[in-house]
Write a structure and sequence with these properties.
The complex is a heterodimer of chains A (292) and B (427). Chain A is an all-alpha fold. Chain A is built from 13 helices and 2 strands. Chain A has a two-stranded antiparallel ribbon. Chain A is flat and about 75 Å long. Chain A starts with a helix and ends with a helix. Chain B is of the alpha/beta class and 427 residues long. Chain B is 48% helix and 13% strand. Chain B is built from 18 helices and 11 strands. In chain B, the strands form 3 sheets. A 5-stranded mixed beta sheet of chain B has the order 2-1-3-11-6, with helices on both faces. In chain B, strand 1, helix 2 and strand 2 form a beta-alpha-beta unit. The chains are: A mainly alpha (292), B alpha/beta (427). Chains A and B meet through helix 12 of A and helix 3, helix 4, helix 10, helix 17 and helix 18 of B.
Chain lengths: 292, 427
């Protein structure tokens, strides 16, 4: 038994130790967020030196802004499809990498190459591969005549393909870590009981992999929701804004147009989307964790 | 090895020279001015000599050049943030045609009317570039070199340059029947500024104007609707490949240059490549002003760069900066830029210059198109609305929205950005 005094001291010490981290967060995360919220309540156009408080006017306009809703739709679609495909591909990939076979180390390393290439570089690379006249993709499809980056409907899927190519290895790595945390004994016991490979996968691997999968889902969907660089390099949001995500819309409004008020409103909306997503996933994650 | 040594010695001498001159600034009190621009492609020597001439003529000034990124929107971002912050670390800057009104209204570029009165500019320069730099009767920049959208055609496939849109369509159809597998008319349909240029050319060709009454950017007009219908129609009828909705300048040029298209809308730069040794279409290319609805020569979008002075710098530096601009936009400088860098001169006189006509007949032949070059809407709001124009024009051209819908949406957003009230709303 420890005394109440030592407990209080320990708590003080804990706060003291956490303080620097909290301070850093306040400076680098909280301040910009609050500044953006404050700016979003203004009409603030850089080139005119115009800055006046307009309250919620920007948000009212946002609600009726068709471009915002289509950007939100594109972002949600991109996030949902890209992350789902990445998870579906990553699990078999991780299972493969988890097996013992000659050259496994080399394969594990090389799988990570797409993830290691800077996004801007790989997006440029893919833009050339998608070129309808010279690109590799149409040639691989037997000389198909698909206007990948210029046709609405195709362009967003092309961007999803690039994202999947780039981040599946990262998800596979997270899943692989999860796989390696499953005790080998369980499989041994299952084999003694005569369970088939599929049964082992369903009853042991999948349930025990769930935390890793949920974590990957959390990481990737938060990331995908803020997607900017890959799409910007591929299409700049075109054609007809069909690949414009919230980040791209916010960037264009802020940096190209210099409309800091409405640009901040869009940035705040993106931020709220990410927070909402995080809250939903974390509650789910927490519930799953609690059940174990 | 010997050559390497020479290079090394030359380099170290050069470095030494630099250091000495900067020390002189401290002691001698020469005015130091900074010229911020994008490096010109090609042999750097003639341009360096041009700058050296200025230094020799102005011994009291030390000239420093600083490079900008070679992408217009990045350069704009740079100037936006640094001029807004009152930066004084550069004196002379290059500005894209659409920036000048914006920077002038913000008070970031100096009024140059004293040194370059608008009346004199109107006498000596092409009309389009002057319109782009003169606001409310004051001069805010001086045209440095100009660009214009023109039509390229295959002389072996069409009888002559088309004058009307109907002719363009008919010639394209005939040529495509004659040469199976060839594509028709290639232009810039990707969602970016090049598309806006193409659309404005079509709007002017249908009798439209860039600005409505009171300087308002007016988009819900009949010519604009016709222009978008025409451009989308080219794709829908197969006269332009569907892939033009992903084309920028280079994509269009490659297709045309490989002999796979009948017509191309592009800037004058594509001429050199098309006529280069080994080009499949060498000797089979003609240029003309763009067609219009009623057959008069079309108006091409004005492009190109202007020189302006940072309004935040001291009067002494401003004076030296204005002298640098006068030097760099002189007829002699115009000639150097045309002969060595294929940049079109903004000065009218150069188009009658015998030396230029002999050495660069192509440049001299652009006079008609350049006389009719028009700027995109000259408004301080242009960069604010450019993004809206790009996306709505893209939607209409790709057939995602009808021209009416796209123009209504664009008008609503543009009015919001410029603070215009829709007509029906009471004040």
């Amino acid at each position: 038994m420890r005394g109440a005094g030592s407990q209080a001291r320990e708590r003080r010490q804990a706060y003291l130790l956490v303080a620097p981290a909290v301070l850093v967060l306040v400076v680098v995360a909280l301040y910009p967020v609050l500044a953006a919220v404050w700016l979003s309540l203004h009409r603030f156009i850089l080139v005119f030196g115009e800055r006046r408080f307009t309250g919620l006017e920007n948000y009212v306009y946002l609600m009726g802004d068709a471009r915002f809703w289509s950007a939100l739709g594109n972002t949600a679609y991109f996030t949902a499809v890209a992350v789902a495909v990445e998870l579906l591909l990553a699990v078999p990939l991780a299972l493969l990498l988890n097996r013992a076979f000659p050259g496994r180390g080399l394969l594990r390393a090389s799988v990570l190459v797409p993830w290691a290439i800077p996004t801007v570089v790989s997006a440029r690379l893919w833009a050339w591969m998608f070129n309808p006249d010279y690109g590799l993709i149409n040639r691989l499809l037997g000389g198909a005549d698909i206007n990948w980056l210029g046709a609405p409907g195709y362009a967003l899927h092309a961007a999803i393909l690039v994202d999947v190519w780039k981040t599946t290895p990262f998800v596979a790595l997270l899943v692989l870590a999860g796989l390696q945390g499953i005790p080998e004994d369980l499989y041994k016991a299952a084999r003694v009981d005569g369970a088939s490979e599929w049964r082992q996968f369903r009853s042991i691997t999948l349930p025990l992999l769930k935390p890793a999968l949920l974590l990957a889902l959390l990481f990737r969907s938060l990331d995908a929701f803020r997607v900017f660089d890959a799409i910007y390099v591929l299409t700049e949001g075109g054609p007809a804004n069909t690949t414009e995500t919230l980040s791209i819309y916010a960037y264009k409004t802020l940096m190209r147009s210099g409309d800091f008020g409405y640009g901040s409103t869009l940035a705040v909306a993106t931020f709220l989307g990410v927070v909402l997503l995080a809250v939903v996933w974390l509650r789910w994650l927490g519930r799953e964790e609690g059940r174990r | 090895m010997g050559r390497l040594l020479v290079l090394f010695v030359a380099l170290s001498l050069g470095v030494g020279g630099c250091r000495r001159s900067s020390e002189e600034t401290g002691a001698g009190g020469r005015t130091r001015i900074v010229f911020k621009f994008q490096p010109l492609w090609g042999d750097p020597k003639p341009f360096r000599e041009l700058l050296a001439q200025y230094e020799r003529a102005n011994p009291d000034v030390e000239l420093v050049t600083e490079a900008l990124p070679n992408a217009s929107d990045l350069a704009h971002q740079f100037f936006l943030t640094s001029l807004q912050g009152g930066a004084t670390d550069f004196d002379v800057l290059v500005a894209d045609v659409v920036w000048v009104p914006e920077f002038a209204r913000a008070g970031w570029v100096a009024d140059l009317s004293e040194d370059f009165p608008p009346e004199r500019l109107r006498e000596e320069f092409l009309p389009g570039p002057v319109d782009a730099v003169v606001m409310n009767g004051r001069t805010y920049a001086v045209p440095w070199y100009v660009d214009v959208g023109i039509l390229y055609y295959r002389t072996d496939l069409v009888p002559r340059a088309p004058r009307t849109y109907d002719e363009l369509r008919r010639f394209t159809r005939d040529a495509m029947a004659k040469a199976p597998g060839i594509q028709g008319y290639v232009w810039q349909g990707r969602q970016y500024e090049g598309l806006t240029c193409n659309v404005y050319e079509a709007i002017w060709g249908h009798g439209g104007q860039s600005l409505g009454p009171g300087g308002r950017v007016l988009l819900e007009t009949e010519p604009a609707r016709e222009a978008l219908t025409y451009l989308h129609g080219l794709i829908a009828e197969g006269l332009s490949p569907r892939t033009v909705t992903g084309f920028g300048e280079e994509e269009a040029r490659r297709v045309f240059q490989e002999g796979r298209a009948v017509f191309m809308r592009n800037w004058p730069y594509a001429w050199r490549e098309a006529q280069a040794e080994g080009s499949p279409i060498r000797g089979k290319v003609g240029i003309a002003p763009l067609p219009t609805k009623d057959g008069q020569p079309g108006w091409g979008t004005l492009g190109g760069w202007q020189l302006a002075v940072n309004a935040h710098v001291s009067p002494a530096r401003r004076k030296a900066a204005a002298r640098l601009i006068a030097h760099l936009t002189s007829p002699e400088a115009n000639r150097v830029l045309a002969l060595h860098y294929a940049r079109n001169p903004p000065r009218l006189a150069l188009y009658d210059d015998p030396e230029l006509r002999a050495a660069e007949p192509f440049i001299a032949s652009l006079k008609e198109a350049l006389m009719r070059a028009r700027p995109r809407p000259v408004t301080p709001y242009y960069l604010l609305i450019a993004d809206v124009l790009q996306s709505e024009f893209s939607a209409a051209v790709a057939g995602l929205r009808t021209p009416e819908e796209a123009l209504t949406r664009a008008q609503k957003q543009v009015d919001h950005l410029t603070g215009e009230q829709p007509d029906e709303e009471p004040e």
